[in-house]
Design brief:
InterPro entries: 5'(3')-deoxyribonucleotidase, HAD-like_sf, HAD_sf. By secondary structure, the protein is of the alpha/beta class. The protein is built from seven helices and six strands, in the order βααααβαββαββα. Helices cover 33% and strands 16% of the residues. The model has no long low-confidence stretch (mean pLDDT 96).
């Protein structure tokens, strides 16, 4: 039986930092610097965070993380992959996220998509996520996908990865 791998969506598959930066520039003309966001929560880093995550199209048009299609296909062939996203926090994102996954990852079936509020009841062997709050409860292998908000986290319980190429080398 294949091991079960849980893969987060925003910040792991979808490049929401680039999306926030693009939306902020579109709306205000201000080009935010990613390095200035290190150690800040997304709410602290992006002045219009709440407005953007609740706006139509934000999740539907998010760019892909580099190498995520190749990486997820690779994992999907080796593991029982489930995409787990805390989508119910932003109810308008539910359909957008499903459509986005269907477009970019057609090999992921609807049975592999879990849209939830909290991830602490989802079980698996390995979890890849960019938010330590989602990994902290998890009893399996914890993989922290590097993003500006978690750059200063040094918890030895997490295996840090810098991107999809590194994930493919490890798994």
């Amino acid at each position: 039986m294949k091991a079960q791998m849980l893969v987060d969506m925003d910040g792991v598959l979808a490049d929401v930092y680039s999306q926030f930066i693009n939306f902020e520039y579109r709306d205000s003309g201000i080009r935010l610097n990613r390095e200035e966001m290190y150690g800040k929560t997304e709410e602290e880093a992006f002045p219009s965070f709440d407005r953007h995550v609740r706006s139509s199209g934000f999740f539907r048009t998010a760019p892909l993380m580099a190498d995520s299609i190749e990486g997820l296909k690779y994992l999907n062939d080796k593991y029982n992959v489930l995409i787990v996203s805390s989508a119910t926090e932003f109810p308008g994102s539910l359909i957008e996220k499903q459509e986005w996954l269907n477009e970019h990852f057609p090999f992921i079936t609807w049975q592999q998509m879990i849209f939830c509020g909290r991830k602490d009841s989802i079980k698996g062997d390995i979890m890849i996520d960019d938010h330590p709050k989602n990994l902290s409860f998890f009893s399996g292998e914890k993989v922290l996908f590097t993003q500006p908000h978690n750059i200063r986290i040094t918890n030895p319980a997490y295996r840090r990865v810098a991107g999809w190429k590194e994930i493919m080398e490890i798994y």
